[in-house]
Amino acid sequence: MTILIVEDNATNAMILKHLAKKVTDEDIVVEADATKALSLCHNTLFNMLIVDHMLPGMSGLQFIKAIRMMSRYDAIPVVMVTADQEPKLRESAQGVGVTDFLTKPVEAVAFRALLSSCLGCPSFPSALAG
Q1: pTM of the full predicted structure?
Q2: Long-range contacts: 111-119, Cβ < 8 Å, 24+?
Q3: All structural domains of the chain
Q4: What is the pLDDT of residue 121?
Q5: From the CB of residue 89, how many other CB atoms can be counted at a distance below 10 Å?
């Protein structure tokens, strides 16, 4: 089981990966380039995708739309991480298949709770201790 984080900012990617490791022992792959991440998704079935909205080359919305065209990603949770709080973005994102949102800066407890929920982890309260 593997999680893919698509985030072009190295610091944000490191923070997301660190927070995810507090909830799960799954492998976590980080890719800064959305086009490369799309290729990874063709070759690997990830259990969850965490996608930044503002990416070089293609937007997070374009990436998610492409992912949802792959039938094996129909039921995979996709969380969009963005600083943009525009309601139209949320509507558009839900229209292409985003499961949930996190607003930057990411709040640690909310991120871990969302990740735990998406992955079906029963032990989230113990993850709060870390």
Answers
A1: 0.88
A2: 111/16, 111/19, 111/20, 112/19, 112/22, 112/23, 114/79, 115/19, 115/20, 115/23, 115/24, 115/48, 115/79, 116/23, 116/24, 118/48, 118/77, 118/79, 119/23, 119/24, 119/26, 119/47, 119/48, 119/77
A3: 2-122 (3.40.50.2300)
A4: 60
A5: 18
